[in-house]
Description:
By secondary structure, the protein is of the alpha/beta class. α2 (about 40-50) links the parallel β2 (about 30-35) and β3. It has seven helices and ten strands. The chain is globular. Fructose -6-phosphate (F6R) binds near residues 130 and 131.
Amino acid sequence: MEIKVFESKKELGKGAAKYFIDLVNQKSDAVLGLATGSSPENTYLELINAYKENKVSFANVKTYNLDEYVGLDTNHPQSYYTFMQENLFKHIDIKQENINLPSGIGDTQLNCQLYNDKLAQTEIDMQLLGIGSNGHIAFNEPGTAFDSITHCIELQKNTVADNARFFDNDLTKVPTHALTMGLSNIMQAKQIVLIAYGKNKAQAIYEMVKGPITEALPASILQNHPNVVVLLDEEAAALLND
Ligand code: F6R
């Protein structure tokens, strides 16, 4: 695992975006794995800026997102589909048919299977990840099997609490379940770029980098991946030097 520490969230976003811009400029039909949440927002802003400055084109890129809430359709303001449209897709030249997210509506088991079938037929060149304060990646909560594929998961209480800020801070509005790529899907990406900022991520980052490889801390599986870069701000990196 390569670790890089940045002075600010903005610099971190620029640093992460550079990996994706360089890849797409080398391979115009790259397949990108994307994440939602606060962590990638600056990265997406930098990708949008680079596109507007004609430094990159996403016209031939395909994307696969990590997860979606069960029960939220594409029109819901807090669905991950909407998040991606608002924070990235509608601002760049990606083709809508090249965008892939699991569907939160309908038969959940079938939706998991359909998404997993799509993933099985592709190879993700670069996967962007955030990390939960409990060490989850995508919505693979602690205890998820390392060999898991796309599945439906019940979100843990702390994840629901962490995400309440997107739902008027009302815990009752936060969906309780999500469809998520499994850990085995994530590990198949050729390269992984994980970003984290803020002190509430410091313990999870410490355990991911220095702790045992255990299903109790899902992100620790990344120690087994040959090509992971971890981009942090100083607060998220704070425990690594102890
Ligand atoms: C989002 C996702 C989650 C988030 C994680 C951190 O697609 O898969 O694992 O990356 O919950 O969320 P933020 O970035 O909001 O702190």
